[in-house]
Write a structure and sequence with these properties.
Layout (H helix, E strand, L loop, with lengths): L5 E12 L2 E12 L2 E6 L6 H9 L6 E6 L2 E2 L5 H7 L1 E4 L11 H9 L13 H12 L14 H14 L4 E5 L7 H16 L3 E6 L2 H4 L5 E6 L2 E6 L1 H6 L1 H7 L20 E10 L2 E11 L4 E5 L6 H8 L6 E6 L2 E2 L5 H6 L2 E4 L11 H8 L5 H14 L1 H5 L10 H14 L4 E5 L7 H17 L3 E6 L2 H4 L5 E6 L2 E6 L1 H7 L6
Parallel strand pairs: 3-8, 3-9, 6-7, 7-8, 13-18, 13-19, 16-17, 17-18
Antiparallel strand pairs: 1-2, 1-4, 4-5, 9-10, 11-12, 11-14, 14-15, 19-20
Helix pairs in contact: 3-4, 3-5, 4-5, 12-15
Length: about 500
Amino acid sequence: MLGNAPLLEVEGLTKRFGGLVAVKDIGFSIRGGEILGLIGPNGSGKSTVMKLIMGIERPDAGAVRLDGADVAGWPTYRIARSGVGIVFQHSRPLNRQTVLENIKLALLPDSLFRLAAEAGVEDRAREIAERVGLRNVLGRRPPTLPFADLRRLEMAKALARDPKVVLVDEPFAGLTPGEMAAFAELIDGFRRDGRAVLLVDHNVKSVSRLVDRVLAMYLGERIAEGSASDVMQDPTVRRVYIGGAIETHARPEIAAQGEALLDLRDVEVFYGKAQALRQVSLHVGAGEFVSLVGLNGAGKTTLFNAISGLVPYAGEIRWQGRPLAGRSPAAIARAGIVQCPETRELFGDLTVRENLDLGGQHLAAAERERQRDWLIELFPVLGERARQAARTLSGGEQQMLAIARALMMQPKLLILDEPTLGLAPVILDHLSRALARLRETTDITVLLGEQNVTFALPHADRVYVIEHARIIWEGHPARFAEEMGTGYL
């Protein structure tokens, strides 16, 4: 049942990091027994809002009222004592202590003058462990626990402080569907206790059935607020996540040529105990443009890094009919798989031309010059900036340079990871025309990973959708709008 007055009120919250405004004039309130979902793509400012509330960062402006008292700028320990708990995305247990001891420690008084535990602490710790599903592992130490139990331990530690307000950061990352349902029930338990809950996630679909309201952020600002269904249909939210109206540009079917150029079968990746890919299978034929679409955190970059030999994996990845397992990233690149990473990884102090020449350093001089001239024709701005240091380019120009440098290697398969991230519409148009030209005039094969469906689909012969580390849909772009357009968020 909702309390009358808000337990948490945020008003005009603003935070700058140098010239970057990470959070701008954000405000909301949460009453007891209510869950507010704070959503937005990576880099939208969600985590910064949470850190400002918890005192991990100090706001430049605005108020954070806890039960009527403004705690903005207070040190973290004072805010925690006043009734704010946090469930971190990444577990931070004491690894030498048992699960029971970790929970008991959270129940101890945090005063140098009161070091002794109160009577009943062990019974209370066992009650909390029972509630979050840790009863059978009380005597184990955190390094021996599965990933889901580590997340349960974070919840137990937050409950031990008996907070009025609970901040929950990306609770479903790395969990199986069954574990996600169990965690949703635990978070709903906070609401039933009468606590105010701020649930931070990048994926509106993950939180839609759990929250009472949703506030969507993008580039530090509020873009929508309301029920989950209303926010999912909001034009601005859909433009941020999807990119706008969905269009497709069909081309004649590419004739099958025996085995797939790239073939993944039941690929799985773990980061520690968190599963980042789950039984992923896909294939790319020679000359195909295949788009892998999914929200941030779905597993696109992990998949690309597995193909490029940058992370260990289970399952099988075959290239031109032969396994890639055991090959180094350099050997994979020499074999024809070249990845243009989301982070671009340019040499900032080298010029545009020097970055391009590094990409083509394996080519004979005459061939390197021909390849460079072709790429400057594809991206004319790179010719104009040839003697300019890469770090002085705009974000869009750096993205063009990163793609051009990858193409200097004359790849058989070009992997593009989120090439549109953070770019202005005019730059997206330049990139779109360049990809269309590659698709129509060369025999290159492209695997494109994107959140922006509007950009990805026109350049695709086939589309895969990845969600929570699994491929959930595969088909032709023309079917996407009909079958996945409304359910993508």
